[in-house]
Amino acid sequence: MGDWTGYDEPARTAARSRCRPGPSRYAPRHLADLDLAGRQALVAELGEPAFRARQLSTHYFGRLVRDPAQMTDLPAATRARLAESLMPDLLTAVRELACDDGATRKALWRLHDGALVESVLMGYPDRVTVCISSQAGCGMACPFCATGQAGLTRNLSTAEIVDQAVYLAGVAASGVVAGSPPRLSHVVFMGMGEPLANYTRVIDAVRRLCAPAPEGLGLSQRHITISTVGLVPAMRRLAAEELSVTLALSLHAPDDELRDELVPVNQRWKVAEVLDAAWDYASRTGRRVSIEYAMIRDVNDQPWRADLLGRLLAGRLAHVNLIPLNPTPGSRWDASPKPVEREFVRRLREAGVSTTVRDTRGREIDGACGQLAASETGSADGR
């Protein structure tokens, strides 16, 4: 099912048991799959001068134009031939929803093989952030997550990942996100899927997002966040990439007994081992690790767990991002009450751990990862 970086055979087998294979695992080749030299070589193979690759790249990454018909500085015949080879449609909009006075916009996409993925734009006064998917579905099986409940369909290609960001960068550039800058500045790999289970394509996507135009979008590496539930070998591999991205560790419990249930991959790599890999990343990159912790009522929000988490993180280059759970329909999981959340924050800060509570966005548009895709699949199935 793709690039299972860092997995041993039992882990691969467990993950595959949750896969739902689609008609095709191969997405059409797109210019975003290639660096500029690769695009130039392909254009030359098609009998066109190499500078056409730069023209296409300038339109796509520099001007955020995804429709070849709008690239009128290319001859019509040339445009059609190059578009067929380098700019196929990767994402077909199924549904686009907005809330928070238009500052939050969620898109549900259908891929070439029918797989569904989601991405979200979030506008703030000082920045525009997009949350993108790296897989269709997810094989990590976290029980409180809508995507985890659906299982894994397949890995996304590099271009399928990048195209989400380019599309939403175009939305921001159109000026429809009132009160926010018109330029995309931050990308978080916190949509559908486990990014480090699609390691090679995610890293290629990061390089494409950060390469200067026209090779890429020209974003700062420091404004890219890659999340993981704790695939330790891949975390250590990421530390050696010499990138300045932020690593976000979805911890959700400080003790192995509970984390084995909430994050099943913990049965392979325990809390101590996962945190050791996180501290290695922080040491090698100088980047503060973000510890993601979904606050789940009467499950992981007890004061003693706040104290234990504080002891594990005290003195480390880490920041805790508490996430009020956005419950999925029919789920037994619910968000912690606000007084419980405030006490959890107090105890962590008393332990000297930097802590914030994530801004909740998009609840009225199925904002949690996987909810919109799940509702679309349910409609298609007649449920």
TrEMBL record:
Catalytic reaction annotation: adenosine(2503) in 23S rRNA + 2 reduced [2Fe-2S]-[ferredoxin] + 2 S-adenosyl-L-methionine = 2-methyladenosine(2503) in 23S rRNA + 5'-deoxyadenosine + L-methionine + 2 oxidized [2Fe-2S]-[ferredoxin] + S-adenosyl-L-homocysteine; adenosine(37) in tRNA + 2 reduced [2Fe-2S]-[ferredoxin] + 2 S-adenosyl-L-methionine = 2-methyladenosine(37) in tRNA + 5'-deoxyadenosine + L-methionine + 2 oxidized [2Fe-2S]-[ferredoxin] + S-adenosyl-L-homocysteine
GO cellular component, one term: cytoplasm
Gene3D superfamilies (UniProt xref): 1.10.150.530, Aldolase class I (3.20.20.70)
Transmembrane annotation, as ranges: none
Alphabetized UniProt keyword annotations: 4Fe-4S, Cytoplasm, Disulfide bond, Iron, Iron-sulfur, Metal-binding, Methyltransferase, rRNA processing, S-adenosyl-L-methionine, Transferase, tRNA processing
One Pfam assignment: RlmN_N
Region (Disordered): 1-23
Name of the top EC class for this enzyme: transferase
Protein name: Probable dual-specificity RNA methyltransferase RlmN
UniProt-listed SUPFAM superfamilies: Radical SAM enzymes (SSF102114)
UniProt-annotated binding residues for S-adenosyl-L-methionine: G193, E194, S227, S250, L251, H252, N326
Function (record text): Specifically methylates position 2 of adenine 2503 in 23S rRNA and position 2 of adenine 37 in tRNAs.
Remaining remarks: Reaction proceeds by a ping-pong mechanism involving intermediate methylation of a conserved cysteine residue.
Location relative to the cell: Cytoplasm
Binding of [4Fe-4S] cluster, residues: C138, C142, C145
Catalytic site positions: E118, C369
UniProt-listed Enzyme Commission number(s): 2.1.1.192
Cited InterPro entries: Aldolase_TIM, Elp3/MiaA/NifB-like_rSAM, Methyltransferase_A, RlmN_N, RNA_MTrfase_RlmN, rRNA_lsu_MTrfase_RlmN/Cfr, rSAM, rSAM_sf
Record's keyword annotation contains Electron transport: no
Cofactor(s) needed for function: [4Fe-4S] cluster
GO molecular function: 4 iron, 4 sulfur cluster binding; metal ion binding; rRNA (adenine(2503)-C2-)-methyltransferase activity; rRNA binding; tRNA (adenine(37)-C2)-methyltransferase activity; tRNA binding
